[in-house]
Amino acid sequence: MPELPDEMVLPEGFAPPDAPYPPVVPRDAATVMLVRDGATGLEVFLLRRVMGMAFAGGMTVFPGGGVDKRDADTTIRWHGEPPSWWAARFRCDESLARALVCAAVRETFEESGVLLAGPDGAGVVSDTRPFHAARQALVDREYSFAEFLAANDLVLRADLLRPWSNWVTPVPEPRRYDTRFFLASMPTGQQADGATTEAEDAIWQTPATAMSDWKTGSRALLPPTWMTLAELDEAGSVAAAVAAERVIEKTTPEIIRDGDKLRVVLTKE
């Protein structure tokens, strides 16, 4: 397992001096590493969040967001490992597991335009442009993802996702998330556009390049993102990453003050 570099520190003000008491209960969330094989190896799709956002403003992240209670809808047509399989991997109940997988697919579509769904269990949408208006309606929460899939006779392709990790926002934070990380290979024919109001730019990069940009100061990364990039860099290819046997442990970083710097210590439950 990679180790966080010594120079990994959090921006001043990231952790408030007076932590909420009792600690904020983390909100369930999902994030997806979209990967593809590029000319020099595995590449991952990254978004730079708009500066000034309430959480992780200015940080480079993977597409993702909080679970909508409607994501647990049992009417969704589903292909792939059942919710019970995901529940065992993420150590949660089946209803939450169903919602996490749905949230992963929905948030990926909302933030990147990539849709992990198809007409059946053997196919994937090859062109998402006809769903442009529906994508915005989902962002605006005008209807649920279940309603979107049903209206377009689409099946959620849970088999295109793989479980990767589970990170929880440190206790001092006023906004906390219990985020499950998923891996997905970029579907053939689709384009990731990053057309979301939450991001100021989007890019495909090798993990090594993204981490190099962080080291030079041109890209800001939170510890979970840095660690995930390091793990993807070790995998080297999409096939190797998809085939990796991952044991999911909940990781809750601890923030410690080292002089005038905020450092992170990783602890697992």
UniProtKB/TrEMBL annotation:
PROSITE patterns: NUDIX (PS51462). This is NUDIX domain-containing protein. Keywords: Hydrolase, Magnesium, Manganese, Metal-binding. InterPro entries: NUDIX_hydrolase-like_dom_sf, NUDIX_hydrolase_dom, NUDT19. It comes from Actinokineospora diospyrosa. Gene3D superfamilies: Nucleoside Triphosphate Pyrophosphohydrolase. Its cofactor is Mg(2+); Mn(2+). The keyword Membrane does not apply. Residues 25-235 form the Nudix hydrolase domain.
